[in-house]
Amino acid sequence: MSKKGKKYVEAAKQIEAGKLYSIEEAIELVKKTTTAKFDASVDVVFKLNLDTRHADQQLRGAIVLPNGTGKTKRVCVIAEGPKAEEAKNAGADVVGGQEILDEIAKGWLEFDVMIATPDQMPKLGKLGRVLGPKGLMPNPKTGTVTMDVAKAVNESKGGKVNYRTDKDGNVHLPIGRVSFDSAKLVENYEAIHALLLRIRPAAVKGTYVKNCVVSSTMGPAVKVAA
């Protein structure tokens, strides 16, 4: 087990072990106990009562956070003709067809989000082993396989984040930066919380949100009464 640094240990002392904080209190503690010298990301992890062996309990999708994440995303769009022009006009960083895919096959991956029109998806199949593990493969469930490329680009640039349960039923998402106004971090958290409650699978019985924590990069976790 890795040894925690002195700053981390001191910061953690401000958090009462086992206590469930309101999201407002938790955000204030996260901001107060951040140990990074940079503008750290603030993340939330929900541990949900899901059996991910069942397809209907594998949650996946995307949400546009009300106040964004504080990170500017580099968007790559695979499209041709008018749709390529639409993507460029919407502010996509890289737009193209087969020539982009050829570069990716050689190892180029200088982007954070890939969007594709449906007609381009057969060409992308060969790159599944490259894009899949990095979470970059376009998917209709996250709105990245679409004919409305302008909307997809705008959402990706404006704070859209993807969510997906891991094998243990956890959903891990960024909700902003330590520099954000506390109210904006709370609003982003509440948008995610409301979404997860709304998409609760019918098969889930008993307590749905088993645990929830918020933390900053390299900072201690604070338990939230979710």
Mean pLDDT: 92
What is the beta-strand fraction?
A: 15-25%
Overall 3D form = globular
Secondary-structure element string:
HHEEEHEHEHHHEEHEE
Largest sheet: 4 strands, antiparallel
- Number of helices, where a helix is a run of at least 4 consecutive DSSP H or I residues: 8
Spans of at least 5 consecutive residues with low confidence: none
Strand order of the largest sheet: 7-1-8-9
Quaternary state of the chains: single chain
Organism: Catenibacterium mitsuokai
Function: Binds directly to 23S rRNA. The L1 stalk is quite mobile in the ribosome, and is involved in E site tRNA release. Protein L1 is also a translational repressor protein, it controls the translation of the L11 operon by binding to its mRNA.
GO molecular function: rRNA binding; structural constituent of ribosome; tRNA binding
InterPro entries: Ribosom_uL1_bac-type, Ribosomal_uL1, Ribosomal_uL1-like, Ribosomal_uL1/biogenesis, Ribosomal_uL1_3-a/b-sand, Ribosomal_uL1_CS
